[in-house]
TrEMBL record:
Pfam families: DUF4096. Residues 10-82 form the Insertion element IS402-like domain. This is Transposase. InterPro entries: IS402-like_dom, Transposase_6_like. It comes from the Bacteria. It comes from Skermanella stibiiresistens SB22.
Amino acid sequence: MSEKSRLVVLNDDQWAVLGPLIDECRPRGKTEPVALRETVEAIVWRHQNGAKWRSVPPDLVPWWRAAQTFIRWSHLGVWERLLERAQERGVDLGMAFLDGTSIRAHHKAAGAPKKGDLEHSAMCVKRLAALAAAMAPRRV
């Protein structure tokens, strides 16, 4: 039988550079991380493809493990320390480009009130107040 081939995101040369840096920066706990290389590869795969966490290929690690590791390390500042160490050592990190198609705005961003709309909204409030006063029950 041949060994099942798995998805490779980082080749051995890339991991040889990145692995020791991650080991310096990651938090120390009671237990060693399970499948650290595959977890980091899943995180890199997700960010390269812009996919959702649940879309991480199952032959790397379970999606929830990659998501938990990424979020936990974000809160602990591991990614910032890793970037600083990589830049200190002159590691070629490549480039990333963002355009408007990959950055979603908040749903209220399209309907934000403009400065000139204040008179209009004040008039609406006056009309609604008059309507409410007209509909109020009258005391006899």
